[in-house]
Description:
Elements: H1 2-6, E1 29-33, H2 37-48, E2 52-57, E3 72-76, H3 77-83, E4 87-90, H4 104-107, E5 111-114, H5 128-135, E6 140-143, H6 150-155, E7 163-168, H7 171-183, E8 187-190, H8 197-202, H9 212-241, H10 249-283, H11 292-298, H12 301-322, H13 326-341, H14 350-376, H15 379-382, H16 387-413, H17 430-448, H18 451-461
Parallel strand pairs: 1-2, 1-4, 2-3, 4-5, 5-6, 7-8
Antiparallel strand pairs: 6-7
Helix pairs in contact: 9-10, 10-12, 10-16, 10-17, 12-14, 14-16, 16-17
Amino acid sequence: MQNDMKTPLLAGAASDASEPLPRCPGGPVISIIGSGDFSRSLAIRLVACGFRVVVGSRNPNRIDRGLFPDGVDIRSQKEAVDSAERVVFAAVYPEHYYTLVGLRRQLAGKVLVDVSSATRLNSGEQSNAEKLAELFPESRVVKGFNVISAWALQAGVHDGSRQVLICSDCSTSKDTVLQLARSMGFSPMDVGGLCQSRDIEEAPLILFPSWGGPILTTFILFLFFYGYNSLKHILLPYLDKGQNNFHQLPLVTMNETLPAVALVTLALVYLPGLVAAVFQLCRGTKYKRFPRWLDHWLCRRKQLGLLSFLCVVLHAVYSMCLTLRRAAGYTLLNAAYHQVKADVENSSVGQQVWRSDLYLSCGILGFGVLTLLAITSLPSVGNAFNWREFTFVQSGLGYTALTLSIMHTLFFGWDFAFFPVAYPYYLPPMYLLALILPCIVLVGRLFLALPCLTLRLAKIRRGWESARHWPRNNQEPRSNEADPPQNVGDV
């Protein structure tokens, strides 16, 4: 059994580089120029998918054969290129492309796949793939696989990124690489000619391209609420009365700021859907595109929701830690002292008990629903839902979470907003400011739930148009009920 495990999976895999390389009856032979980490990971993935792999190295005798899986032959670069039936991967750094000029005759007519990436953004220089195409004019250069990391190649498509961006000026060679990527279990995307290779090479250098706006928005909200709370409860009392409350900055002020940021950010997730619905109702058609800012906002709702969930988690952790700080013990001792001094046996107030229980219950339920929303936003979970199930979770449960969060905040404030003591220095409580936008979103959703608006919006999204969009020759209005909307906005 041990001898069987050591036998290569593909027949005819020779271990001696001096022996001639036989043809693999089970599939084409693919060569890789270069023996680095990416070459090893690519060879592992190709062998796992049933391909015969030959790795070309400048000095094959110095390569540890144990780094590559069984079924991979390590030979010189010339022998590896000669062995390839059609596809050759160039897995070397761009500054070493000139060392491959001697293989120009062997590479003529073959598909040369460039897997390199750019070293800096917006350099304005010629892309690596275009330089490679100039060095090998008789080869069919294809750009691809550079957005897939070596770890993703080894882990497989279930644990790593699946999308592969591919471009080339030769459509036949591009189709070959597209089919190869599908055979490896990835999702290839044709992005055009080789002139697009610069964008593909710069793609791995872009850091979280879809997270910049949501992170900046969340950070600005945090600065606003944190500064407002610090001004009202720490800075102004210190300047006016000399009270030193600066010890509240690390924990108490943070814990009061995070729920406000989470609530407003969650409202920003569902506000663009309402705005999109208003646009469609006012226009009477779905065939006009939304403004660019609204399109961009709609595409960033997932990131905003996850950032809101992060703030909620931090708020829960901070709340549990409040009782652990030393100041909490002093507060309990002071309260007990005043109770004993006032000869009060039972300080429990039924109204306050109801308030705290409802406040905590709504907070726990809201946290649970937000957790469910965060889990279903994962592609591996969301892909298991059909469209109706996904819409119910992300829209129906989303508004449920927003409602519970608003109730959590209202029970926390109770009737405190109606007392003058809540407005020191004429500044309103922070939770009132945090409730403005969420309440607007919730009221807007209830308004759009009116039957007259709901039915009209449903007709528009199924292709109906108002009379002002009809053709001038008084023909029947178009009704493309099967056409998907250009922009999708949850109502």
